[in-house]
Amino acid sequence: MATVRDIIAEATRDLTAAGVESARGDALLLLAAAKGCERAALITDPQREVSAAVLDVFNALLARRRAREPISHILGEREFWSLPFRVSAATLAPRPDSETVVEAALAQVAERAAPLRLLDLGTGTGCLLLSLLYELPNASGVGIEKSPAAAAVAGENARRLGLDHRARIVVGDWTGALKDADVFDLIVSNPPYIALSDKAALPPEVALYEPAEALFAGTDGLDAYRILLPLCARHLTPGGIVALELGAGQRPAVAALASAQGFEIVDCQRDLGGIERALVLRKEAGNLCGSAK
Ligand SMILES: C[S@@+](CC[C@H](N)C(=O)[O-])C[C@H]1O[C@@H](n2cnc3c(N)ncnc32)[C@H](O)[C@@H]1O
Fold first, then answer.
1. pLDDT at position 289
2. What is the pLDDT of residue 241?
3. Ligand 1: which residues within 6 Å by Cβ?
4. How high is the mean pLDDT of the chain?
5. Domain limits, the chain
6. 34-38, 135-139, 285-289, range with greatest mean pLDDT
7. Does domain 78-282 bear CATH number 3.40.140.10?
8. What atom in ligand 1 is closest to the CA of residue 122?
9. Residue 21 Cα, ligand 1 centroid: separation in angstroms?
């Protein structure tokens, strides 16, 4: 029987040849999934033998990764804000960059026990909404999602995280899903923001496997912001906060669109790569969210 060490060495070569950057780490994750054990157990016991049945399962998973299917889609789960989120082919896999939006939003909340009303536009897996609800124990929120299959994943994540009594996932277009009277204290969104002209530059994991409606926003990547900023202005309570994820280099353009809607730019937080990632806006002074700074 082959050992863990041999299998991982060969799979690492295989994935590297296919252009996968995190080849060894991914090989370990796939073998752990095939064996039903922790990745750490493989690292500490590299001479462990692997049965033919496990190897068959592993090889099937490896073939998917070799075809550049994202590791999170293969495993069906991705960690975000230290919480486990189910993902599927219908959802964008939550990115570490998007944790900047959660951080930026929380930085504006002076009283975490306040009964805040949250709105997440384009909720996908629900990662932004559910992470905020996890941190804000008396808040409740609505996540709007156009894709019924993605909304089903968000609903499942809400249940798995024990947050479904405070999260309502609505299937629909963000322009039609709200009533005029619906207002929120904190609105977050990670909208599609990739320009169609940038499609060719995307890695296969994104271009081939992530839903186009989660990625692209017209010729300049700003179409969703053009729709969402007036929507946010209508549904934000006085003193409320909007936190929007940005694509690289989009801060000046999105800030200009926000100013045109009467928003004040409160903050812009950079992600771990130093990119301006989370734009924080306020429409009118008030103290519902307050300022934690
Ligand atoms: C970039 S993904 C973000 C998903 C998730 N919030 C996250 O941060 O990982 C954008 C999401 O918006 C949804 N979406 C795009 N256009 C929409 C629309 N007009 N109405 C509602 N949802 C929309 C997409 O289906 C996708 O799930």
1. 53
2. 97
3. 92, 94, 98, 122-125, 127-128, 144-147, 150, 173-174, 190-192, 213-214
4. 95
5. 4-67, 78-282
6. 135-139
7. no
8. 12
9. 27
Can you give the pLDDT at residue 288? Answer: 56
Percent of the chain at pLDDT above 90? 95
Q: pTM for the complete prediction?
A: 0.94
Q: Which two tokens stand for residue 253?
A: 């353009």
Can you tell me which atom of ligand 1 is nearest the CA of 120?
A: 6
Asked whether residue 291 carries a pLDDT value surpassing 70, the answer given is no
Query: How far is residue 120's CA from residue 146's CA, in Å, rounded to a whole number?
Result: 12
CA of 8 to the centre of ligand 1 (A): 36
213 Cα to the center of ligand 1, angstroms: 7
Mean pLDDT of 69-89: 96
230/221 Cα distance (integer angstroms): 17
Provide the terminal-to-terminal Cα distance of the chain, rounded to the nearest Å.
59
> Tokens for 211?
């839903």
Q: Evaluate whether 279 touches 103 at the Cβ level (below 8 Å).
A: no
Identity at 228, one-letter amino acid code: L
215 Cα: distance to centroid of ligand 1 (angstroms) = 8
Q: Please tell me what DSSP assigns to residue 293.
A: -
Residue 281 has pLDDT above 60, yes or no: yes
Which residue is closest in CA terms to ligand 1's atom 18? 173
Please answer whether residues 93 and 210 qualify as being in contact, where contact means their C-beta atoms are separated by less than 8 angstroms.
yes
Nearest CA to ligand 1 atom 6: 123
